[in-house]
Amino acid sequence: MLARRAFLGAPALLLAQKSAAQRPNVLFIASDDLSNNLGCYGHPIVKSPNIDRIARAGVRFDRAYCQFPLCGPSRTSLLSGLRPDSTQILANQIAVREKVPDAVTLPQLFRNSGWRSVRAGKMYHMDVPAGVGTNHFDDPPSWNLAVSPQGAEARTEGEGRVIKGGWKWTAFKGDGKDQADDRATELAFETMSQGGGKPWFLGLGYLRPHVPHIAPARFFDLYPLETIMPVVNPPGDKDDIPLASEISINTRANDMGMNEADKKEAVRGYYASISYMDWQVGRVLDRLEKLGQARNTIIVFWGDHGWHLGEHHRWHKRSLFEESARAPLLISAPGIRGAGKASKSLVEFVDIYPTVAELGGLQAPARVEGQSLVPLLNNPARAWKKAAFTQMFDGKDITGRAVVTDRYRYIRWTGPHPDEELFDHASDPHEYTNLIRKAGNEKLRARMAGILDAGWKAARAT
Question: Is the distance from CB of 171 to CB of 159 less than 8 angstroms?
């Protein structure tokens, strides 16, 4: 079992002076459209025992924010270490080299430094389900080997239905050997077993819980419909949400026309997909243990952005609310002193690049725009950034920019429907009351607007 003791006794890393055999492996796991609905984040019914194992062995970041709540821009930002304003990738279906031809991505940095770099599954953008099995929008310089496994996906046979708006679930018999995520796990086994004397960097990208929600029936059985309690939004919740925010969520607002029974099925499918993906993670962790490599492997687990399950009547990403901008981030590594603890400090996905580079004994490029989280891995309670930043673009003419501090979130919308939002997480953690609409908050609004305008450089940890 992957356990805290696997790391606490390891010596501090001085990797720059270590031989190839001593340098750590990197298991870099991504989950698609995964919110913080996990056991280790305190969800009351979601079962994610294997992801929880990573949390126990490492540090759980409770306030980790993506830079753009959409797959392509978020993943490009994370893997390049550059914010969307620098990559200028503000939509899906754009490869990193189209905009940043001289980028040195995180897996490329390790590849250039002697690691065997392998991609199994979705790491950069990939259309799901239509693009599964293709290498569109991937980045060849990042990898020695890149494989996009084919999968049955929407063709999977089993019990299920299309609920609304293309939201589909399928519960099938067996373990799903014809699913792309299962095949990605098998490729991970091969990578871990074929080191050839080199350390490896494995980008392991799972599709679930991205729609369509497809999983073995036994994972649906974990969530009887009577246990599913859909979100109840207060009356008039949408009254103070700006028009720009509603437009940017596209077709996934207004509960997509779902009734209460539809919502229960939709949530159940999402939870079952999480537990299926978690089972795959467990298989990989077990193999890592069996091969004796756990003590010398950095493990990073992340979701590319959050996901709405009915909050503010939304069922998608593409929003600047907390549920969409915040996502899970877990990091374990040999020798860290904060193993088994949680950090409530503000961190950003752009910080992942310099963190993993430092843990591997490598120097991140000077242009990288995040900060290494190694100080938080050793002391999760320490003070950190003053703010975190997330942005949105609707692909036409609406831009949204959000800044979150320890207590407040401020959002500014520009374009044909300019507006603002301001929320106090101390009294309103679900962001139901837009304080911009209420008198007496002028000074707070000016202060938060100033933090947004000052930008990420002014918010760095010192």
Answer: yes
CB 160 within 8 A of CB 133: no
Q: How high is the pLDDT of residue 9?
A: 33
Structure tokens, 362: 């490598």
Task: Specify the 3-state DSSP secondary structure of 27.
Answer: strand
Domain spanning 23-385, CATH class: alpha beta
Q: For 46-70, what is each residue's pLDDT tens digit?
A: 999 999 999 999 999 999 999 999 9
| Cα(35)–Cα(305) distance, integer angstroms | 7
H or E element, residue 219: helix 217-220
Q: Left, alpha or beta for 155 (phi > 0: left; psi -120 to 50: alpha)?
A: alpha
Q: What is the DSSP string of 30-89?
A: EETT--S-SGGGT-SS---HHHHHHHHHSEEEEEEE-SSSSHHHHHHHHHHT--HHHH--
Residue pair 410/422 in contact by the 8 Å Cβ criterion: yes
Contact by Cβ (8 Å): 3, 57: yes
Examine the pLDDT at 10 and tell me if it is beyond 70.
Answer: no
- The answer, yes or no, to whether residue 21 has pLDDT greater than 80, is no
What is the reported pLDDT for 18? 53
| Chain segment 137-174, per-residue pLDDT in tens | 999 999 999 999 999 998 999 999 999 877 899 999 99
pTM above 0.85, yes or no: yes
Catalytic: 40? no
Please state, as a whole number, how many other Cβ atoms lie within 10 Å of the Cβ of residue 371.
20
Q: Among residues 40, 43, 66, 71, which one is catalytic? A: 71
Beta strands in 230-364 (DSSP E): 297-303, 329-332, 341-348
Instruction: Give the model confidence (pLDDT) of 214-267 as tens digits.
Output: 999 999 999 999 999 999 999 999 999 999 999 998 778 899 999 999 999 999
195 burial (CB, 10 Å; 0-12 / 13-18 / 19+) is: middle
In whole angstroms, what is the distance from residue 96 CA to residue 25 CA? Answer: 25
Extents of the domains making up the chain: 23-385
Among candidate residues 40, 66, 125, 313, the one labeled active-site is: 125
**210 annotated active-site:** no
Q: Which amino acid is at 255?
A: D
Measured between alpha carbons, how far is 270 from 262 in angstroms, rounded to an integer? 13
